[in-house]
């Protein structure tokens, strides 16, 4: 008869679970399962010096794991151990993923679609987890209904919404005002370099600002991270660890990291994926626009030599390549078009100067050097106006910026990041 391994999963503290088992082989296997190479480890001095193997283990002292890895541990127990495992999960661990029964009132200026209702209600039901919903699926509306319901249900006095950029703070703030969240008496605040409105019912802040203000994090009983893939996993973990009073911990994203370690770090202090709506699914159902991707392959007569960046600069300024971009811009008529670039002077400013002389359109270039008010001004003009060529760096327009009327986007400069391109 094969001996059965037992594993009791208990609550170690408000942010960690503990694996209790007398089976040494099982514990060693779990440590190995939760051990991963750090991205770029082979280039790090300690690895090159031979004093570190390039790996990190997510299982901590006392056989503890972040609570968000509970379901990953259960999956490993079921599929990976060679002997049968009897797993029990204590009631206080189960209760971590149960929110109180709250009935949302869908009375903001926009009524949610069916898939948005599903995401809202799952977030409230489970209280912790990640909503993966495609770009342009209305995440700001979902988050508005979630915080409204939590505030009305007196489950939080203050809710924190984390976004990756100052532009998204302003966009989110405007969206919530447009939806009418403030009309019920709930106050909405912004926190970044210009504003420090920590005392409002709903606070929208950049994660960069929060990294410098850990002492403020215990104020919030609800923490929601929008564009959760855009936050470095170790920084998000630090913020969520310091949010010790947050009963609701939710992440929203359209695309998660490609690497397993980064994904597990994101899930560690938010939770597992609790709702998943892909862009293909929403496009097929008619909720978002279908996207046609055209790839233009240019063959060059010249033989370019140099480093990767040197060759990239030479090809970007190639006359024939620029003429192709000009033809594309002219082909859209009076419609607006967005051209994304990676570099400020060698790509953005160069392309702006070149296009201004050859197209009969208003040509604008925005980068991180422009303040948030200037970027927001042009986002709104681009949304309502016409015959505009907006050239922008990937850094300011690749994550979460909402321009519903945009029909044409050109990736005018190459970029390696899959998430950023998507």
Number of helices: 17
Helix content: 25-40%
Over all CA atoms, what is the radius of gyration?
24 Å
Distance between the termini: 53 Å
Mean pLDDT metric:
89
How large a portion of the residues is in β-strands, by DSSP E? Answer: 15-25%
Largest sheet: 7 strands, parallel
Arrangement of strands in the largest sheet: 9-10-8-11-12-7-13
Kindly state the number of beta strands. Answer: 17
What structural class should be given to the helix and strand makeup?
alpha/beta
Shape: globular
Can you describe what's shown?
The model has no long low-confidence stretch (mean pLDDT 89). Helix 7 crosses helix 15 (372-384) and helix 9 runs parallel beside helix 10. 37% of the residues lie in helices and 19% in strands. Helix 15 (372-384) links the parallel strand 15 (362-366) and strand 16 (388-393). The chain has a seven-stranded parallel β-sheet with strand order 9-10-8-11-12-7-13. Strands 5-2-1-6 form a four-stranded mixed β-sheet. The chain has helices at residues 24-33, 45-48, 70-79, 91-95, 114-126, 139-152, 166-179, 207-211, 233-242, 260-268, 279-284, 308-316, 319-331, 344-356, 372-384, 394-397, 418-421, and strands at 5-13, 16-20, 35-37, 55-57, 64-66, 85-89, 128-133, 159-163, 188-191, 202-206, 222-225, 248-253, 273-277, 337-341, 362-366, 388-393, 409-411. The longest helix is centred in the middle third of the chain and has 14 residues, at 139-152. With 422 residues, the protein is α/β, with parallel strands linked by helices. The protein contains 17 helices and 17 strands.
């Amino acid at each position: 008869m094969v001996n059965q391994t037992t594993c009791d999963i208990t609550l170690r503290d408000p942010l960690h679970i503990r694996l209790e088992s007398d089976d040494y082989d099982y514990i060693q296997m779990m440590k190995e399962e939760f051990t991963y190479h750090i991205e770029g480890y082979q280039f790090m001095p300690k690895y090159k010096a031979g004093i570190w193997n390039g790996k990190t283990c997510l299982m901590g002292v006392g056989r503890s794991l972040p609570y968000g890895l509970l379901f990953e541990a259960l999956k490993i127990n079921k599929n990976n151990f060679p002997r049968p495992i009897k797993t029990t999960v204590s009631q206080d661990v189960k209760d971590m993923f149960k929110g109180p029964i709250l009935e949302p009132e869908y009375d903001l200026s926009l009524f949610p679609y069916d898939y948005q209702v599903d995401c809202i209600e799952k977030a409230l039901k489970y209280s912790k987890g990640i909503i993966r919903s495609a770009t342009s699926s209305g995440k700001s509306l979902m988050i508005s209904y979630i915080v409204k319901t939590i505030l009305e249900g007196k489950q939080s006095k203050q809710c924190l919404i984390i976004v990756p950029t100052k532009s998204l703070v302003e966009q989110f703030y405007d969206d919530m005002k447009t939806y009418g969240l403030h009309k019920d008496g709930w106050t909405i605040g912004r926190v970044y370099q210009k504003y420090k409105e920590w005392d409002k019912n709903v606070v929208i802040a950049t994660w960069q600002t929060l990294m410098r203000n850990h002492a403020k994090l215990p104020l919030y009983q609800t923490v929601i991270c929008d564009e959760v893939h855009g936050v470095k996993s170790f920084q998000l973990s630090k913020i969520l660890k310091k949010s010790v009073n947050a009963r609701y911990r939710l992440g929203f994203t359209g695309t998660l990291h490609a690497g397993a370690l980064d994904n597990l770090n994101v899930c560690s202090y938010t939770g597992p994926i609790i709702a998943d709506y892909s862009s293909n699914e929403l496009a097929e159902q008619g909720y978002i626009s279908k996207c046609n991707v055209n790839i233009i392959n240019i063959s060059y007569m010249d033989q370019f030599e140099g480093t990767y960046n040197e060759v990239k600069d030479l090809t970007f300024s190639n006359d024939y390549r620029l003429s192709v971009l000009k033809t594309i811009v002219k082909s859209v008529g009076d419609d607006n078009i967005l051209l994304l670039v990676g570099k400020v002077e060698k790509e953005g400013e160069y392309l702006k100067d070149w296009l201004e002389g050859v197209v009969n359109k208003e040509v604008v270039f925005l980068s991180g050097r422009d303040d948030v008010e200037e970027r927001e001004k042009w986002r709104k003009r681009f949304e309502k106006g016409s015959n505009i060529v907006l050239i922008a760096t990937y850094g300011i327009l690749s994550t979460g910026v909402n321009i519903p009327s945009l029909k044409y986007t050109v990736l005018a400069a190459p970029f390696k990041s899959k998430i950023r391109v998507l």
